[in-house]
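Figure 2 data, in text form.
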Amino acid sequence: MYRNKYRLIIPFLAPSLILYLTFVFYPYARAMYISLTQWRGLANPPVFIGLGNFQAMLKDDYFWNALGNDAFYVVVLPIFTLGIALFFAFLFTQGIRFAKFFRVTYFFPQVMSVVAIGVLWSFVYHPTIGILKSLLNLIGISSPPVWLGNPDTVLGAIAAVTIWQAVGFYMVLFIAAMESIPSTYYEAAALDGASRWRIFWTITLPLIWDTLQTAIIFIMIGATNMFTITMTMTEGGPSRASEVLSTYLYNEAFINSKFGYGTAIAVALFFITLLISVVLTRLLRRESLEY
């Protein structure tokens, strides 16, 4: 009986399994192997050097600089993006006027191309013709910083753009979760005299915790891959101040032709992302509330 069942199942699973092995498993396995080699490109065969690339990585100041920038985004982006998204989501579920208009307005950046957003905000931050400079001049700040040209401000400037672009997505996610909560809970809390702030902390937040947990993991994984917005706005400058691991591995592999070392950085980034996912899943785990 079991043999007949498997004979029926295997033909249906085989195409998907073959595609997965070909386009997912094999590239990962190949990348793992290349990370253990010294390879300058297609003209020369890879030379196996074991853990040499990873040993060099530990002594590479540029690698640690890029990792530090990634860590900055991993900390800053979830706090501000999810904090603002939660605030707007709660605000727009309280029956205020034009709530639907504001939902669409704040979600609009999410449907734009990241490259287009990077170009747009590069003009906003422009030190001579930028809109931001003009606005600051109106309020009496005659010499604002060169946002993308100053190592002290460039990370914050890029983070602000990413937060602006991502808030709408998480706001809609939280609104969907909040609107699924039975209104009887809010009515009972209102009868007991609870303030909106207390209702949010004692009713809304616990009941949308599963959605919030998913959002935290999702945005922290995304914070480790800031390649597109960074390359569009600064290309890792000035003086590598905004370089992240994804841009560093790109430069090492495709600009400096160090494909083995670049792949080793990619493998390290993969395990860092995997570690973040596992740790967050365990830290944020809690008993689900049913309603």
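Caption note: The domain at 66-283 is CATH 1.10.3720.10 (MetI-like fold).
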